[in-house]
Amino acid sequence: MWYPNIVPTRRIRISIMIFLISCFFIISPLVILYTAGYRYDRDTHRIKETGVITIDVEPRDAVVSLNDVVIDQRLPIHLQNRAPGIYKLAVSREGYIPWSMPIEVTSKQTTYINNTSLYKDVLPTFEYSTPKEKISTFLSADAQFVVTSLQKEGTLKELLLYDITKDEETIVWRGSSLLPLELSWSPYAPIFKFFVTRENETIVEIIDARAPTVVATYITDTSMHDMQWSEARKDTLYAQSGDILYALAGGSRNPLEAVTSSYHWYVDNAQDIWTIDPTGTVFKNYEQVQSFDSIHDTYTIVGVTERYVLIKTPQQEIKILWLDSGKSTTLAADNVFRMQDPDEPPGWIVWSPWEIYKLDDSGTQTLITRTNKVLYDVEWAPVYKSLIFVFEGGSIVGFHPQYRTSQLLFEHANAWVNDISVNPKSTYILFQSSLNNKEGIYKREL
C-alpha cells in the first residue's frame, strides 16, 4: 500500500500537541464534574450538583414516568445524577387510578416518593340490604361487621349482626326496650355496647362480634351514660355508676375508684384516673397536676398524654391543656379520633367541616389541609398513609398528607354516604348509601 510522503513540520506537531493538551485540560474537568454528579443549569447558567430520586410505590409493576418520559425500570426505582429542578412524576397501571404530582430535585439531596399506593379504579359493590324496619345502622371500626337496630311490635327491639367476610346475618339480641337501643362500637376492637331501657332499670349489654352468642349484661342505674372504651385493654369499657368507676369486661364488673359525680374523668392506658374539677384543676389519681382557667363545665375528656390533656367543649372546640405550663391551645374543630397506625407517631386526627389537623402525643400540631367543601367524615387508611374524606353530597376522596394529592374514589349524583369505615389493612372501605334505589351497605375496594 502506498502512503503519501507527508512529514508534518515542527510547527504543525507543536500545534497538534498544544491542541491535545488543551482538550485534556478542558474535557477532563468536565468529565470529572459530570461523573461526580454536576450538571449545567441553562436557566441560571451555573454548574450545580445533582440530586437523587427514589421511587417506591405499590403496585410494583406500575409504570413510572418523569416529564412524560417512561422510565424503563421496575419499582423500586433509584435515579442518580438528576439535574436540580421541578419534574412531573406520573405513576399508572391498568385497573388503577393514575397518580401524578410535581416533585423537586435539589442539589446533594435525595427526593423520596414512598409510603403510598395506587387506588383501584373500581365501582362500589352492593354488600348488604338493610331491613325496611330498621331504626339505625352501625358499622364496626374495622369495616367487618354491621349492626342494624330493628323496631318490632310495641316496645320489642331486635339487633341484627352481619359479617361482611363470612356473608352471615345473625340475630344477636331480641327484647323489650322503652327507648331505641343507644348503640356504639369500640374504636379499638369489634365490640359494641347498647342500652336497654325498662321501667325500673337500665341495662348495658356488651357483645363481641367475633363471638356474638355471648352477651355480657350489666344492670345499672340510669346515670351510667358516662363511658369510655379502653385503648390498651381492648375488651374493657369504663363506666361510672353513682360515685364509683367500674371496668366492665368479660361479664365482670370490677370497681376501680370512687369519683366525684360532678367531675369529668378519663382512664389512661396505665389505668390511672384523670379528673378535672369545676375550677379547672387537673388531678391524676387525686393528686393535683395543674390548674387552668376558663374551662366550660360540660366538656368531655378525650385523651391524656405526658404533655397534655385533650378535651372537647360544647362550643365545637378541641382544647389542648398543657400540663407543664398551665396554658391551653384551642383548635376550631369538634371531631377527633385516635390514630391507629404503628408506622405513624401516636396521636390524634382533629377535624372540622373545613380543616384537618394532626396532633401527636408529643404535642406537635400540624395543619394537614383546608377544604372548600364541607367535610362530613374523615378516616385514616394505614396502608396508603392517606386520609379518606367524605364530603357533603356523598363524594369520597383519598387525600395523601405527605404529598398533598387528592384522588376521587366515589361520586354519584343524588347519592348520600353515611357511616364510612376503613378496613385496617386498607383493602376496602364500607359505607351506607342508596344507589339506584338500592339502600344498604356498599363496599369499595381500595
Automatic annotation (TrEMBL):
Pfam families, A to Z: PEGA
Residue ranges constituting the PEGA domain according to the UniProt record: 51-114
Keyword Membrane: yes
UniProt keyword Membrane, yes or no: yes
The protein's name: PEGA domain-containing protein
Transmembrane segments: 12-36
InterPro entries, A to Z: PEGA (IPR013229)
Keywords tagged on the record: Membrane, Transmembrane, Transmembrane helix
